[in-house]
Amino acid sequence: MWRTTKVKCKSDVPLKEIVDPAKRAAWISQQVDLAKKQYMDGINIDIEQEVNETSPEYYALTELVKETTDAFHREIPGSQVTFDVAWSPACIDKRCYNYTGIADACDFLFVMSYDEQSQIWTDCVAKANAPYLQTLVGYEEYITMGIDPKKLVMGVPWYGYDYVCLNLSEDHVCSLSKIPFRGAPCSDAAGRQVPYGAIMKQVNSSISGVLWDEVQKSPFYEYKDSLGQFHQVWFDDPHSISLKAAYVKNRGLRGIGMWNGNSLDYSREAAAEQQTEAMWQALTP
C-alpha cells in the first residue's frame, strides 16, 4: 500500500494581530519564507481561539486564509493551504468562524473529528472521544452549509482519554469531576490524553479487557490504579476508524488523516507491528 506525505508548516497566530492588514501581510510573508527555506509543500493553519460572529476577527480570519492561499500559490507553485476546523461548525468551543468563506479561500478543511467532549452539556460522564454518529452529523452540517465534500478531510484520533471515575457503575457509567470549558459545565479536561501505542500496552492488564459501546461505536476499557481509583479509557481502534473511513469513501470526502502519526508503537515487537499496520490499514477502506 502506497502512502503519500506532504510536509507543511503548522501555524497559529494571535487573532488580535490579524485584524491589522499590515500585521497580517507580515505574518504571511514570514510563513512563505519559512516554507521556502524548509522546502515545504504548504501550510496548515490551526487557530482554535474564540471568535464571535459579529467581531472584527471573524472577517479578518477569512481574509487571512484567502491572502495566505494567494501568497502560497503565487510564491510556491503546487503548494497547499489548509485550515483546521472543529468536528462541527456549530460554534464548538465558541469558535464561530466563517466556515463557508474559509473553505472557499483555501485548498481544503481538515476537520478535527476528535476531542468531541471538549464541551459536555449533558450528564458529566466519560464518553467516546469521537462517537460515530456525532462525528457524521458534523460533516453533514458542513455539507448542508454548502461546502463541497471534496473540500473536507476527516481527521481521526490516534489517541484516547483516560478518565478517573468519581464513581463507576456496574453498567460502565463513569462519573467525572466537573471541569468547565468555554461555557460548558463539564469537559474532557477531566481526563488525560493517551496515545494508542500506550493504550495497547495497558489494555491487557485492565480489569475489563476491551469493551465495545454499540451506540457510540467506540472501544473502551477499565482499570484500577495503585491508589485504588477506577479509570475508564475511551479510544479509537481499527474497527471504529474503519467505520468512519467507509463514510469518507461513500460520502465522497477528499480524504482522511490522523492526529497524530507518532501515537503508534513503531518498535520491532511483533504485536506492536501488527497493531500499527492495522491502524494504517483502517484509513483505506
From TrEMBL:
<dbReference type="GO" id="GO:0005615">
    <property type="term" value="C:extracellular space"/>
</dbReference>
<feature type="domain" description="GH18">
    <location>
        <begin position="1"/>
        <end position="285"/>
    </location>
</feature>
<dbReference type="InterPro" id="IPR001223">
    <property type="entry name" value="Glyco_hydro18_cat"/>
</dbReference>
<dbReference type="GO" id="GO:0009313">
    <property type="term" value="P:oligosaccharide catabolic process"/>
</dbReference>
<comment type="similarity">
    <text>Belongs to the glycosyl hydrolase 18 family.</text>
</comment>
<keyword id="KW-0378">Hydrolase</keyword>
<comment type="function">
    <text>Involved in the degradation of asparagine-linked glycoproteins. Hydrolyze of N-acetyl-beta-D-glucosamine (1-4)N-acetylglucosamine chitobiose core from the reducing end of the bond, it requires prior cleavage by glycosylasparaginase.</text>
</comment>
<dbReference type="InterPro" id="IPR047898">
    <property type="entry name" value="DIAC_cat"/>
</dbReference>
<protein>
    <recommendedName>
        <fullName>Di-N-acetylchitobiase</fullName>
    </recommendedName>
</protein>
<dbReference type="InterPro" id="IPR029070">
    <property type="entry name" value="Chitinase_insertion_sf"/>
</dbReference>
<dbReference type="GO" id="GO:0008061">
    <property type="term" value="F:chitin binding"/>
</dbReference>
<keyword id="KW-0732">Signal</keyword>
<dbReference type="GO" id="GO:0004568">
    <property type="term" value="F:chitinase activity"/>
</dbReference>
<dbReference type="InterPro" id="IPR017853">
    <property type="entry name" value="GH"/>
</dbReference>
<dbReference type="InterPro" id="IPR051887">
    <property type="entry name" value="GH18_Domain-Containing"/>
</dbReference>
<dbReference type="InterPro" id="IPR011583">
    <property type="entry name" value="Chitinase_II/V-like_cat"/>
</dbReference>
<dbReference type="InterPro" id="IPR001579">
    <property type="entry name" value="Glyco_hydro_18_chit_AS"/>
</dbReference>
<dbReference type="GO" id="GO:0005764">
    <property type="term" value="C:lysosome"/>
</dbReference>
<dbReference type="Pfam" id="PF00704">
    <property type="entry name" value="Glyco_hydro_18"/>
</dbReference>
<keyword id="KW-0458">Lysosome</keyword>
<dbReference type="GO" id="GO:0006032">
    <property type="term" value="P:chitin catabolic process"/>
</dbReference>
<keyword id="KW-0325">Glycoprotein</keyword>
<keyword id="KW-0326">Glycosidase</keyword>
